[in-house]
Each structure stands twice: as structure tokens, then as C-alpha cells.
Amino acid sequence: MNITLVVAASENNAIGKDNKLLWHLPKDMRFFKNTTWAMPVLMGRKTFESMGNKLLPGRMNIIITNQDGLKIEGAHVVNSLAAGVELATKNNYKELMVIGGGQIYELAIPIANKIWFTRVHTHIEGDTYFPALDKTWNLTSVESHQADEKHLYSFDFECWQRN
Ligand SMILES: NC(=O)c1ccc[n+]([C@@H]2O[C@H](COP(=O)([O-])OP(=O)(O)OC[C@H]3O[C@@H](n4cnc5c(N)ncnc54)[C@H](OP(=O)(O)O)[C@@H]3O)[C@@H](O)[C@H]2O)c1
């Protein structure tokens, strides 16, 4: 199973505060939708709540929690990363998209081989951060976008990979 992380982080790696995102970047939201569409997406229980307890349409939603017996209509609830990977494998997927948040990126990064990383060009305080990438990761592509009337910050779509 290929494990791919999808994240948007500031230059100081902040990803969220008060269980919300730190910016509104419509092009990044579109990129996220296109990248994860029709794929299994695995998220922490808090990230699910941060989306107003709404499932992502057109994707197999897998929510990870330590709680026993948590049921979320339309979603698959698992108690471990391994169980999420197993579920995606059983459903014949070759790639699992890990979509946050901070705790779940920390959990999944040791077994990930790709990161779609939107680098948002600002320094901003958060209460949730993405882990620093070590030297095993290679930057394989970058697409830059300028700030404009709909995008307060400039940002890059980066792809990071490792074998
Ligand atoms: N910028 C981005 O790309 C991005 C993406 C996603 C989220 N975010 C932001 O990130 C923040 C949320 O992140 P977060 O770190 O607070 O929470 P999170 O990672 O979304 O979810 C944490 C929850 O996951 C469960 N969990 C954690 N480790 C587990 C394990 N080993 N086994 C089973 N379950 C486990 C626990 O759920 P229970 O408490 O139910 O046991 C835990 O409370 C929000 O601000 C959100 O907006 C940003």
C-alpha cells in the first residue's frame, strides 16, 4: 500500500488552530479535492469534527479514534493506522491518502512514501504543526501560485517522495 500525506502548512509548519484551518485558499481546496477524489482518505477524529462532522463526498472516509464503539454514519471508523491500511487494501486500493491532522500526520509519516505539500508563504502561529521533514525526503515537483484577491498568501504545490 502506498501511503500519501496531503497537507497545507505555513513556512513554520503550522497547520491549524482551535480545530480550524489557518487560511482560505480556494485553489488549494480544489487541489485537495482533485488529489483525493475517489481515493480512501484517512483522518483523525478531530479533523473530522473540524469539517463540521461532514464526510468528504466521492471518497472512502476512514476516521481514526482511540474510542471504542464510535459509529459515524457513512464512514469507516478504525482504532489504528494498521486497521486503516488493512481496510483500504481489502477494498482493492493501492494508495491511502492521509489527510491529517497533526497527530495523524505524526503517526503516518514513518510509513509514508509521498507527500502532497502545499507550502503557504506566511509565518503564522498555530496550535497544531506538521512534523519537520528529514533528509530521506526528496522534493520532486513544485508549482507556484501568487497571492491575489482570493488568496491572501502565495503558495506552492510541492510533491515530496522517498523510496
Ligand atoms: N492544514 C492542513 O492540511 C490540515 C489538515 C487536516 C487537519 N488540519 C488541522 O489540524 C487540526 C486537528 O489536528 P489534531 O492533531 O488536533 O487532531 P487529529 O490528528 O485530526 O485527530 C486526533 C485524534 O485522532 C485520534 N488518534 C490519534 N492518535 C491515534 C492512534 N494512535 N490510534 C487511534 N486514534 C488516534 C484521537 O481521537 P479520539 O480523541 O477520538 O480518541 C485523537 O484525539 C485542526 O486545526 C485542523 O484544522 C489541518
Helical region count?
Answer: 4
- Strands ordered across the widest β-sheet: 5-4-3-6-1-7-10-9
Order of helices and strands: EEHEHEEHEHEEEE
Structural class comes to alpha/beta
Radius of gyration: 15 Å
Shape by Cα distribution: globular
Low-confidence stretches: none
Summarize it:
The chain has 163 residues and is an alpha/beta fold. The protein has a single domain, classed as 3-Layer(aba) Sandwich (Dihydrofolate Reductase, subunit A), CATH 3.40.430. The protein has four helices and ten strands.
Structural commentary:
With 163 residues, the protein is α/β, with parallel strands linked by helices. It has one domain: Dihydrofolate Reductase, subunit A, CATH 3.40.430.10. The chain has four helices and ten strands; from the N terminus they run ββαβαββαβαββββ. The strands form two sheets. The protein has an eight-stranded mixed beta sheet, sandwiched between helices. A two-stranded antiparallel ribbon has the order 2-8. The radius of gyration is 15 Å and the shape is globular. It starts with a strand and ends with a strand. 29% of the residues are buried. Bound molecules: NADP nicotinamide-adenine-dinucleotide phosphate. The site of NADP nicotinamide-adenine-dinucleotide phosphate has 26 residues, from β1, β2, α2 and α4.
